Prior knowledge:
six-stranded antiparallel beta barrel, 4 helices, globular, disordered N terminus, single chain, alpha+beta
Amino acid sequence: ADHVGGSSVTFLHRDTTPGRAGALGGRADSRGPPARAAGRGREGRAWPCGHRDIQALLVGGVQTVRGRWPWQALLRVQDGYFCGGSLLSRRWVLSAAHCFKMYRNASNWWVQLGELNLLPSFWNVRAYINRYRVKDIIVNPSYHGNSNSNDIALLRLATSVTYSKYIQPICVLSSTFMFLHRPDCWVTGWGSLRENETSVPAPYNLQEAQLTVFNNTRCNYLFQQPSGRSTVDDSMFCAGAENGSVDTCRGDSGGPLVCDKDGLWYLVGVVSWGIGCGWPNRPGVYANVSRHFTWIQKVMSCSTPRPDFSRLLLLLTLLWSSQLLQPVWVHQRL
């Protein structure tokens, strides 16, 4: 089972349990390891969501390259436990709720952006610059500890993200029906490449795979063979290949499943759970992001960072003092 967990997690009246790893500006074994959003760049230009400067190759199940999936986030705690995530805006990352079952205190977590490698070099200054502390973890109120339904959570970062060619937000839609049966959507993560492996092998680079999104009727039909019971509800969907040739696995939890439309990329699913890895008739199961669009929009809009009045008071004090003493040069570093 996953070992999951954070100033603290807000479960909004619900506890959690492990599971798998308009546009808004577990597997049974779980998917953890064994272990239109918009912004502005430095120059003031708009940073619309869903864009990338580095194009993907039409292949699946291979190592990707840095910048191909600029919204990909790596969520980690000190002991090495990790999950995937998706950057929605300068202060918000979306992931799976079950990732925070064990580590519920937000101060235990940090988010790495803009890096391809699971274990960046100690000398990689760029990685440290693009590493962000987590301020709050907000789990969807409909997520139940004994169910894989509504397996979704938002992370508010302690500081704002700086966008670049390698770090950009992904779009979110209120409806994603247009992506059903699409065979050209993509999933990314640092999870195991085979069911009996414990982690992605060296050099520990992000993996990408192309897969098909199924509707829930087809998905439940596949899961009913031979168990005879429905498994996938409306808060989820499944994706992969019916023959099991493409799938997520342990360690991919919380990562993004994305599809493109008219040149923009949209976050359609969050890696949640499954039965085994790459089993025929057992595609991976994902949290349906569009089903939670309103909740995501509400949390992000109602949680705008408040002004730091202590810094403002300090600035006013310095300015007042400058009228009494020699000129004081004040440099704001926001």
